[in-house]
Design brief:
Blueprint: E1 7-10, H1 13-24, E2 27-34, E3 37-44, E4 47-53, H2 63-66, E5 72-76, H3 80-89, E6 93-101, E7 104-110, E8 116-122, H4 125-134, H5 136-150, E9 158-159, E10 165-166
Parallel strand pairs: 1-4, 5-8
Antiparallel strand pairs: 2-3, 3-4, 6-7, 7-8, 9-10
Helix pairs in contact: 1-3, 4-5
Amino acid sequence: MTSFQPELWVDQAAAAVSFYEAAFNATVVHRVGEGDDIVAQLAVEEAAFWVAAASPALKRLSPLAIDGATSRTLLVVDDPDAVVEQAVKSGATKTSAVVEEHGWRMGRIVDPFGHEWEIGRPKDLGRRADAAASRPNEVDDVCRSARKISRPRKRIGLRSSAGALHG
């Protein structure tokens, strides 16, 4: 199994966990530490992420410490309208209303800890589910073909700013 689980650094880790529980119906999967000196793994259905205390000594800065963000997290959900509304009621700031754009139904928020989120779903998600239910073998064949096509054929190296080849 492969998964990607970002870790969000925040100044008030305990409050952040409470916010994500309220805003996204997240559940705490794992938690160590006490008060704001914690590391916690949360899950929103199958999507997992971590929350940890920011640490300037370790150069792990929160968005509030740098007065901005360095990334945005996309949370894919069935009902982005309801999740954005729930997040705003829980304390997030809506930065973009939920609309149809780029093949998605999506809205954007900034949580109280400075992290940017896109909350959305592909517009044709319902049609994909219907297709899967009505033609399971055909959809399985398409998925198998897509996996074969998406496998990298050769390794691609990237150069760092120092000129060393990575990859």
